[in-house]
Amino acid sequence: MEVLQLLISGLANGCVYGLVALGFVLIYKATEAVNFSQGDFMMLGAFVTLGFVNPEYMGLPFWVALPLVFLVMGLFGYLLDLIVLRAVFGQSQVAVIILTIAIGFVIRFSVGLIWGHEPQSLHSPLALGDVRLGSLVLGLADVAVIITTFVMTVLLWQFFQRTKIGLAMQAASQNQMAAYYMGIPVKRVQGMVWALGGIVAAVAGILYASKGSMDPTAGFIGIKAFAAAVIGGFGSLPGALAGGLIVGIIEPFAARYLPPGYSQIAPYALLIAVLLFRPHGLFAQVRTKKV
Amino acid sequence: MRFHFKTTYDDDIRLFIDGWKLFLYGALLVLMLALPWMIDSFYLGEANNVLIWAVCGLGLMLLTGQTGQASLGHSAFMALGCYSCVLMMQAGVPFIIALPVAGVITGCIGALIAIPALKLHGVYLAIATLALAILADDIIVLLEPWTGGVSGIVPPDIVIFGYVVNRWGNPTEWYYMTLVVTLVVTLLYRNLLRAPLGRSFAAVRDSEISAQAMGVDVARTKTIAFGLSCAITGLGGALMGLFAGAFNNETFNFLLSIQLLMMIVVGGLGFIHGAFLGAIVIAFLPQLLSIVSDMMGSGVAIPGLESAVFGVILIVFILFEPMGLYGRWLKFRVFLELFPFARKDMFKRQKSYLKTERLR
Amino acid sequence: MSLLEIEGVTLKFGGVTAVNNLSMKVEEGEVFALVGPNGAGKSTVFNLISRFYTPVSGSIKFDGHDLLQMSPHEVPSLGIARTFQNIELFHQATVLQNLLVGRHRHRKAGLVPQLLHLPSVRAEERAHREAVEEVIDFLDLQPYRDKMIAGLPYGVRKVVELGRALASKPRLLLLDEPASGLSVEETQNMRWWIDDIRRQMGITVLMVEHDMGLVGKVSDRVLALADGAKLAEGTPAEVQSHPAVIEAYLGTSAISKTADAKGART
Questions:
Q1: CATH number of the domain located at residue range(s) C1-79+170-266 in this protein
Q2: Distant-in-sequence contacts of B109-114, Cβ < 8 A, 24+ apart
Q3: How do the domains of chain B map onto residue ranges?
């Protein structure tokens, strides 16, 4: 029973990591930019939602606020690409890494300035309390998170398979030059990918905030999401999600069965092990640069 | 404008290109030596801090600026340098031996870690090193018997040939000690740049494939770069911990390595001057901010303000001056030398195209 | 024994055969050209010699050394230098520094002497610079010696890349399309340089080139490739008039047309 409980809460955490990792990989695949602020995107998404929904702020009904949140976060991603990231297009990866880290700092500071540094909780319809099944205590929020992530993944998958924009994004991520020659407006597509990255982050943020309280440092779970993305392999979206789930599940079990102090290490130790033995992740294919 | 008529090969090899440069840097050295008589002990401490940051920055610069590998984990090596130096001092090893040995230990361990880590490219390396920095924090806590864990260590006094150097008691001597370390590290760095190894670093940074075609062993070169980088950063970390007077796992938090990377980018990637200019920015920014917030009359420190302002500075630099403060200075100097003939589009950036480094 | 001996080399990328059972020999002191349509596997042969690729079967020997036993960075130490089709220079370094990297295989000093800049290091540096200055003189690169690569025009970069290869004092020089993208005058210069490299420096040259004019003027022997396999080998004139080569370049109709024209004439 206890194992099942750990599994569910691990899966729920893993879903959030997975969604952040998903946004990370999405942007990386399409633009080769590594968004080290994806975790802060998630935190921002959660606070924007909180600002719309919570009674002490605007107090809108959750389902009215949701499209607004997606709009705001999509626009945020798009504008960030347009104003900041497009200027470093083609420059070294180091520049992009450090740039997005800096953006993360700015986001964290701005959120703190607007909504304060105290932990707050989102009035979310997903935060439904607990349910008891015999000796098993399940947070309904956890179950809701798992279901939402599942639905979200199917939707994203359909988006990439069925819609024109999704296919264009895929093409741009496979071979930018070829996509450009085929008449795909690569830069605009990249902007849309950033917008999508913002929206995915918002979903992750709402789910995260439904499970407990939020403060501006919540963006640091982005680091675990990077670990997840690397474990899954940067190349693939399902890999990112799987990596997230792996990290999520390891955590509660490590906390339960390992001596204290060792449990925080577990995800990173796994990350380093994966990098040592399968440097391109568990689910990646490798090809070398052509000269 | 001065012209250099080169008459011997040594013209390109020597440290200072001409007598004027020698004079300028000589004057700077005299100024640095005279500093304790010119400013009070508070600002001397700040100057000391700048030099310590510069040493750490030079370490990372060697890896990121010269060899093109981004590390987000150098705080781990600062910690390693610091703890190994202080543990040796506690065991009775004289400081003057403990410090360089700590550098060597950090360098060797860094090189060992580099062997698997440097098979990774770009992002992977950045994330692996970030994980390392986070792990270091936890490992320091786990090794409590040696490291003091969360309660940390108060290092013993530094004794050089029976002479006690204490930050509060004799700040001038502390400052001179840091100055000597900084000068030695800078000289070694310069020597490296004018030797074959420095050139093979640049070769690896700019094109691994053609570096190989010229006979450069890429893996080995990266390992050496990582090792040297860690050794220098370890020295800087040891000085930082000793200067702080007490340190624990939080002192060498992973945010420190992010700050360090930001610092060298703002200063100017790939230039020795960049490490120093960046160090000045990072050491004096908190002072500046507190002065500004005093003037605004708020008096209350806003959490995260410092890193946010630093973040904004960094964004502005990457967008408008990717060569950092030193690059800005170089352009200004050329402008002065050519005055009034400098053209506005002279430094226009070449259009760059996405050069993929990704392995799909 | 020939300087470079390639025996029955086959290379596959997935299902595609890039090089198919290729054998060729390059003699010491000659200029040998590889020609063929795009995608024929010419550059792939270079990448095999540089050990960037490992063949499925066959052997590659240089002066009796088995290249397949070596890593990419060990190949230059035997005296093989190369240029790249799309110029791979160190663009954040000066021309001088680029050429000095070419001297890498001649370096002797260890890590500690370099850090301390001992007199031995200084002496070694002087020797490197002397060798590089010779190359700069030879290729007329004086105006650019302290310029960053990033600001140089294409034609100059091409010459710098040649210079970097020459600075290593190789025995075998691999030139991947030395004249592509060059103006008429620059191509003319390149021709003279290749001649001088062979005659004065005694360096064997293996090159990939599309400009048949240049190939005809500088090379002793030519090998035509198509789809990774050998079509024809011989003097430039022999290869150019070989029916299989004409077919590969111009298609079958061209053959019948030339045949028709010949028939009409007789």
A1: 3.40.50.300
A2: B109/B77, B109/B80, B109/B230, B110/B77, B110/B80, B110/B226, B110/B227, B110/B229, B110/B230, B110/B231, B110/B234, B111/B223, B111/B224, B111/B226, B111/B227, B111/B230, B113/B226, B114/B222, B114/B223, B114/B226, B114/B227
A3: 1-38, 39-346
pLDDT of chain B, 360 residues: tens digit per residue: 566 777 788 878 888 888 888 999 999 999 999 999 999 988 999 999 999 999 999 999 999 999 988 899 999 999 999 999 999 999 999 999 999 999 999 999 999 988 887 777 777 888 889 999 999 999 999 998 889 888 999 999 898 888 888 888 889 999 999 999 999 999 999 999 999 999 999 999 888 899 999 999 999 999 999 999 999 999 999 999 999 999 999 999 999 999 999 999 999 988 999 999 999 999 999 888 888 877 776 656 677 788 889 999 999 988 888 788 888 888 888 778 777 666 655 555 444 444 444 333
Backbone angles phi, psi at C174, to 5 degrees: -100, 120
Q: Is B9 on the interface with C (CB under 8 A)?
A: yes
Q: Answer left, alpha or beta for residue C77, where phi above 0 means left and psi between -120 and 50 means alpha.
A: alpha
CB contacts, 8 Å: B202 with chain A: none
Strand order in the sheet with C31-35: C80-82, C172-176, C204-208, C31-35, C221-226, C229-234
Total domains in chain A come to 1
Smallest Cα distance from C50 to chain B, Å: 7
Size of interface B-C (CB pairs under 8 A): 113
Of 3.30.750, 1.10.3470, 1.25.40, 3.40.50, the CATH number of B39-346 is 1.10.3470
Angle formed by the axes of helices C119-139 and C95-102, to 10°?
110
Nearest to B314 among A102, A226, A280 (CB): A102
* Inter-chain residue contact B192 with C50, CB threshold 8 Å: no
Instruction: Check if the beta carbon of residue A59 is closer than 8 Å to that of residue A129.
Output: no
Could you give the CA distance from residue A20 to residue A227 in angstroms, rounded to a whole number?
11
- In chain A, residues with a C-beta closer than 8 Å to the C-beta of B126 are 34, 93, 97
Best to test chain A binding among C52, C83, C161 (most A CBs inside 10 Å): C52
- Residue type for A181, please? Y
Which tokens in the block code for residue C106? 């001649």
CA-based nearest distance A211→chain B, Å: 25
Q: Give the start-to-end residue ranges of the domains of chain C.
A: 1-79+170-266, 89-169
- Residue numbers in B near C133 (CB within 8 A): 9
* A291 interface with C at CB cutoff 8 Å: yes
Q: Chain C contacts of B9, Cβ < 8 Å?
A: 125-126, 129-130, 133
Q: Is this complex scored with an ipTM above 0.95?
A: no
Inter-chain residue contact B304 with A99, CB threshold 8 Å? no
List B residues 292-351 in contact with C (Cβ-Cβ < 8 A).
350
With 0-12 / 13-18 / 19 or more C-beta atoms within 10 angstroms meaning exposed / middle / buried, residue B3 is exposed
Answer whether B9 sits within 8 Å of C74, measured CB to CB.
Answer: no
Work out the number of other CB atoms within 10 angstroms of the CB of residue A56: 9
Q: Does the CB of B112 have a partner CB in chain C at under 8 Å?
A: no
A76 in a structural domain: yes
Computed on alpha carbons and rounded to an integer, the radius of gyration of chain B in Å comes to 21
> DSSP labels for C212-251?
HHHHHHH-SEEEEEETTEEEEEESHHHHHT-HHHHHHHH-
pTM assigned to the model? 0.90
Contact C50 B212 (CB under 8 A): yes
The identity of residue B320, as a single letter, is F
Structural domain that includes position A10 = 2-218
Spatial neighbors of B324 by CB under 8 A, at least 6 apart, are B264, B265, B266, B267, B268, B269, B271, B274, B277, B278, B317
